[in-house]
Amino acid sequence: MKKIMIWAGVISLSLMATTAFAAPNEVSKETKKQTQNQEENKTSGKAESKDDTVSGSVYGNGSNGLENAYENVKDKPAGARIAELLKTKYNIDVNSDTSFAAIVTSLEKNGKLKAAVDVQAELVSQDPTNVVEYKKLSKLKVKLGDKKVKVYVNGKTLSFEVSPLVESGRTLIPFRAISESLNAVVAYDSVTKTVTVTRDGVEVKLTLGSKTATINGKAVSLDVAGKVKSNRVLVPLRFLSEALDTNVTWDAETSSAIIIDKK
Question: H helices of 61-207, where?
């Protein structure tokens, strides 16, 4: 024990001596660095005290916020797109240390719903298997007044010339839009009123007005038949999507259909 204490004392004295007899220039540099750090901390404290609101934690002060964001996400294409979107479309700068989920939350709280929708849509596209993120996007759209049926396919929001409709508890959707979004080959015979969709060796056929369809020649029953609305052919969304090997989630709260490839 005595030896340990003696060695500890020697080490302590050695360290003190090193500090005491350091070269004047080195001491000067160290002192200068400490003073500089203290000044930077003071400046940082003043800057933070200028805006400690929720929006202040998200929006930068002037162009520096955007510059910091780009520096932080320069190797992350999704982050760069979101930062550029907010700046060019809404003139909003984002702080580099703020998560995009937090940005969405803050935008919503501050009533900037359109900007929140755009950012959330980008997040969905980056994580297309996360059903929770789709539901968040739909809730924001509902807040904006969008009460129509919303359809998402593998991270993308589908748009339609003719809106989907709900009949007997089943959603009918323009067949060409849903089929092409899944990279399927589509055809419609106006004489027989037969819809044919082919994808990865699976052929689906259904005739308008009929509750019987076929998958690779095998007959299956439908809860609701396909129909024509405003010169557009609508087919049962769940039946067609599942026949083409996808998972379909229906969110009744926001009237949203979420379609994700199983592969």
Answer: 64-73, 77-90, 100-109, 113-126, 131-143, 175-181
